[in-house]
Model the fold of this input.
Amino acid sequence: MKISVHQSAEEANRAAAELLAGWLSSAKNFMPAAGNTPLELYRLIAEKRLAMGHLNVFILDEYVGVPKNEPRNCANLLRRSVQAAWGIPARQFHTISSEAHDALESVLAHERKIEVAGGLDVLVLGLGQNGHLGFNEPGSAEDSGARVLDLEKISVEANRKWFDGKYAPNKGVTIGLKTILAAKRILIMAYGPHKTEAVYAMVKGPRGAHCPASFLQRLPEVHVFLDQSAAAKLSHKQ
Done:
């Protein structure tokens, strides 16, 4: 795990974009996280106007119980900010259903598709306040597979804010930690004082299911981008 601390989220995003642009040039299979944190990163990559027609894009997770046409669900957000903005052919953009009746079947097929494609070359993650990765909430096993699961209260409230109170999904569907941890290169970002405790748990451990992000500790190609407030509990030596 390599940690990079910057004065601000803006500086961290610029540094992350330079790293990610290099990775994407030789990648085949890419997985982006949705949510607020990585949106500026994706915009900076779009500004570079790189050739991206070679990429297969697999989304990480999805809200369960949100209509497929909701603009802020993961599939539609990433369709705009990654697939369309980067010029990736629509046939190479792979999503997960947000509808309860087929979310599980959809994510199991999604994970099989990733395996057949040869696994993930590059993965961009945000860090949940409770240490979750995707919707792999605390208690998730290191070798967990794709599934639908109940979300903790802190995640439900974050969802409520994301949807401006229109929806507050209490279930998520996600790729499992086994697939996440097998990615060749991982970039993870965390900004703001509300992420300080999660960052400390991710970096300092102990390593375990109480903080799914702590499973990243032993991976050599994990690059962590933080602003100073998110890194406040880490010493310079760490």
Notes: The two ends are 11 Å apart (CA to CA). The chain has a mean pLDDT of 96.
